[in-house]
């Protein structure tokens, strides 16, 4: 996704989840489409009508108009009458749209964030061009190719456009570095940079592994398989697979991951479209790396599309215990169709169903606006806090392989519900994160204490490093300077969470993702609940094994 940008864990991400979910869940490839024999005459009449109107506007309308923009708008408006996930992507937006699902990109390889309208390097990616020339964590990028980019309201998209480019082309960066009086110039040749969809994999304890998957892109399965093999070599016998906030992507990557867990020839997913052209059934077919170990899957309202295929297959086959909150509810499959001008139509061609027969797609008959507000309405109804607030229809009742009752009609309902933890969330903390102040504070601390931090290994850091009250007072002073009013009651309520995240961000700068995630998980109630449920997963696993023996 261009150069990597990291945002605070506490920022409200539901609009982000929704936007990605609308674009995800697609089949690989495209094909030429012909009008159906049933609607050929109507299609021809509609085409001629649209052509005539566009011609009249272009020739006779009183003001000058951009015909291309007008036609793009007309197409997008027309598609809104179909379903929430059929979309049209103009040619100018295709690079960004593709980058989400592609396995790599061409750029300089740097993780950055925007603090106080200035680009800060979080970390140069290992082995990338930025690391090779000596760019460091904490550097402030103030110019790109001689153009000032600090203090001008630059956006993440703007940065992507400036730093990305064809392999071999060069970009000139001017940076400010702490303890250096003058700016430093770097000339960096762009190169192919692999993107990462498996955020982290590590051993929680001697037996339990953890893998976080943030999307289903071109390289996701290979990354996941490598992580699974690595953890097995380290002694993993049970696994927590984290799909929270994962908005989906390529369907086949999800089914291949499911096949690593499901034995025999059990059904994983099936699709049903118009006629039989896009009907399909997918079964387990290979000997997977983790068909016997205990498995817990974490989902939430941001888990959509391919995430729901995977979670639904594992739940329906009684292969995993699903923990968290009801998933997004996207059960429509899109095919990307390239158009002549470089734009793309992503057309819904089928619905997908879990092995028990559930369609996970939530209703959308009330229109696009109602559909887009569904996530916030769940919050208002109390669904994030009370499972009884979720309404299920008896006619959409299904059974898993072992006879457990599950429901269709909108998302995957977890086996174990975990309420959203808001006990430590306050307006004061939200303001700190809105200004990206917590992450900036941690980065500056790392730069000031890099030598002593690097002398510790992660185990030593985790056991001995503490965020002191003096550090918190410094943060409060910085917040006050940014006109964030200190509120002692709110600060005290958020204090433990704030200390946890400062420590995790410092660990991220020092040790990478393998350092930050274990510390974040100390304050992650959903993750902690997943660990507690491993015993229940073990019981379920044994029941399934006995059932398999009887078949």
TrEMBL record:
CDD domains: cpPDZ_CPP-like, Peptidase_S41_CPP. InterPro entries: ClpP/crotonase-like_dom_sf (IPR029045), PDZ (IPR001478), PDZ_6 (IPR041489), PDZ_sf (IPR036034), Peptidase_S41A (IPR004447), Tail-specific_protease (IPR005151). GO terms for molecular function: endopeptidase activity; serine-type peptidase activity. Coiled coil: none annotated. Residues 93-164 form the PDZ domain. The keyword Repeat does not apply. PROSITE patterns: PDZ. It comes from the Bacteria. One of its GO terms (biological process) is signal transduction. Keywords: Hydrolase, Protease, Serine protease. This is S41 family peptidase. It comes from Adhaeribacter rhizoryzae.
């Amino acid at each position: 996704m261009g150069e990597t940008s990291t945002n605070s864990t506490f920022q409200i991400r539901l609009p982000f989840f929704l936007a990605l979910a609308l674009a995800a869940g697609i089949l690989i490839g495209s094909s030429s489409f012909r009008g159906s024999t049933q609607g050929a005459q109507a299609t021809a009449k509609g085409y001629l009508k649209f052509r005539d109107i566009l011609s009249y506007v272009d020739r006779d309308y009183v003001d000058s108009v951009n015909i291309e923009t007008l036609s793009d708008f007309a197409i997008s408006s027309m598609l809104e009458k179909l379903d929430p996930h059929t979309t049209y992507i103009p040619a100018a937006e295709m690079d960004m749209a593709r980058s989400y699902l592609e396995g790599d990109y061409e750029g300089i390889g740097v993780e950055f964030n925007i603090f106080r309208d200035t680009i800060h390097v979080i970390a140069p990616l290992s082995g990338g061009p930025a690391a090779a020339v000596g760019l460091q964590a904490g550097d402030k990028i103030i110019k790109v190719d001689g153009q000032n980019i600090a203090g001008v309201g630059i956006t993440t998209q703007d940065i992507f456009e400036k730093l990305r480019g064809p392999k071999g082309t060069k970009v000139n960066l001017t940076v400010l570095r702490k303890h250096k009086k003058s700016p430093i110039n770097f000339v960096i040749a762009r190169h192919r940079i692999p993107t990462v969809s498996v955020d982290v994999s590590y051993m929680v304890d001697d037996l339990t592994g953890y893998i976080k998957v943030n999307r289903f892109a071109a390289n996701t399965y290979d990354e996941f398989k490598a992580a699974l093999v690595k953890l097995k070599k380290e002694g993993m016998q049970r696994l927590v697979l984290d799909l929270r906030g994962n908005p989906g992507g390529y369907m086949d990557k999800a089914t291949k991951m499911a096949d690593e867990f499901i034995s025999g020839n059990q059904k994983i997913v099936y699709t049903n479209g118009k006629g039989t052209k896009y009907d399909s059934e997918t079964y387990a077919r290979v000997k997977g790396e983790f068909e016997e170990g205990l498995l817990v899957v974490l989902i939430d309202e941001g888990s959509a599309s391919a995430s729901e295929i995977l979670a639904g297959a594992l739940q329906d086959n009684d292969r995993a215990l699903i923990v968290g909150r009801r998933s997004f509810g996207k059960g429509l499959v899109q095919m990307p169709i390239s158009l002549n001008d470089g734009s793309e139509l992503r057309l819904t061609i089928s619905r997908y169903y879990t092995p028990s027969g559930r369609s996970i797609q939530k209703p959308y008959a009330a229109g696009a606006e109602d559909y887009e507000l569904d996530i916030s309405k769940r919050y208002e109804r109390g669904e994030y806090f009370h499972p009884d607030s979720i309404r299920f229809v008896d006619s959409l009742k299904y059974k898993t392989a072992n006879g457990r009752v599950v429901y269709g009609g909108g998302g995957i309902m977890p086996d174990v519900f975990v309420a959203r933890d808001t006990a430590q969330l306050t307006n004061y903390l939200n303001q700190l994160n809105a200004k990206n102040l917590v992450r900036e504070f941690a980065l500056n601390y790392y730069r000031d204490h890099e030598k002593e931090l690097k002398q510790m290994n992660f185990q030593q850091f985790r056991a001995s490093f503490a965020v002191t009250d003096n550090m918190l007072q410094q943060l409060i002073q910085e917040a006050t300077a940014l006109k964030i009013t200190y509120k002692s009651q709110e600060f005290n309520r958020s204090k433990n969470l704030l200390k946890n995240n400062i420590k995790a961000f410092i660990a991220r700068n020092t040790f990478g993702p393998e350092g930050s995630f274990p510390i974040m998980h100390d304050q992650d109630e959903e993750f902690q609940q997943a660990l507690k449920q491993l015993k229940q997963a073990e019981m379920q696993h044994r029941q399934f094994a006995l059932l398999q023996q009887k078949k």
